């Protein structure tokens, strides 16, 4: 049985491949989605992608995921550090969630060291580049098998 996973990207992630390539690499969001889709097919995960620069739109997607998706992967971008609203949406839906960051947020500016999202997730992946998203898929596939 294929499990359904919603992949959410927060602000500025639409600029992947163009924005600060020394930090975020040269892979575009579309290329990342293709890599994830290819892996999802191999490990029986059905993926849906959504990106927004707007906090409320991300919250709406999390709410609408209840009863539809088995898991959630989120890169909240800068919302990681202060969006109690996104945190509360994840906590309220109780969808198993993995937080992903392309860069190692703990090696960057001090304001990036705190995640208000992490305490309501089943895991956080930081600093593995685009592979972090693939690692999150592997993790969720294993999580589903365990549960």
Summarize the structure in short:
The protein has helices at residues 21-24, 29-42, 55-65, 84-93, 131-146, and strands spanning 3-9, 45-51, 71-75, 97-101, 123-126. It is α/β, with parallel strands linked by helices.
Name its key features:
147 residues; alpha/beta; Rossmann fold; 5 strands
What does this structure look like?
With 147 residues, the chain is α/β, with parallel strands linked by helices. It has a single domain, classed as Rossmann fold (3-Layer(aba) Sandwich). It is 37% helix and 19% strand. It is built from five helices and five strands; from the N terminus they run E-H-H-E-H-E-H-E-E-H. The protein has a five-stranded parallel sheet with strand order 2-1-3-4-5, sandwiched between helices. Helix 4 links the parallel strand 3 and strand 4 (97-101). The protein is globular and about 40 Å long. The model has no long low-confidence stretch (mean pLDDT 94). GO terms for molecular function: 3-dehydroquinate dehydratase activity. Catalyzes a trans-dehydration via an enolate intermediate.
- Average pLDDT confidence is 94
Beta content comes to 15-25%
Number of helices: 5
The secondary-structure class comes to alpha/beta
List low-confidence stretches.
Answer: none
Number of domains: 1
Please tally the β strands and state the result: 5
Helix content: 25-40%
- Looking at this structure, what is the CATH superfamily? Dehydroquinase, class II
Q: Biggest sheet: strands, sense, closure?
A: 5 strands, parallel
**What's the arrangement of strands in the largest beta sheet?**
2-1-3-4-5
Kindly report how far apart the N and C termini lie. Answer: 14 Å
Q: H/E series, N to C?
A: EHHEHEHEEH
The CATH C-level name is: Alpha Beta
Q: What is the correct CATH architecture?
A: 3-Layer(aba) Sandwich
Radius of gyration: 14 Å
């Amino acid at each position: 049985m294929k499990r359904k996973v919603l992949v959410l990207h927060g602000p500025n992630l639409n600029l992947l491949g163009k924005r600060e390539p020394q930090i975020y690499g040269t892979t575009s969001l579309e290329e990342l989605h293709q890599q994830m889709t290819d892996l999802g097919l191999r490990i029986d995960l059905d993926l849906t992608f959504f990106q927004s620069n707007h906090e409320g739109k991300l919250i709406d997607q999390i709410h609408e995921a209840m009863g539809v998706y088995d898991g959630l992967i989120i890169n909240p971008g800068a919302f990681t550090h202060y969006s109690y609203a996104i945190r509360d949406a994840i906590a309220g839906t109780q969808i198993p969630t993995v937080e992903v960051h392309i860069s190692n947020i703990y090696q960057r500016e001090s304001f990036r060291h705190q995640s208000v999202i992490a305490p309501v997730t089943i895991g956080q992946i930081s600093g593995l580049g685009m592979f972090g998203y693939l690692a999150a898929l592997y993790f969720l596939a294993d999580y589903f098998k365990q549960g």
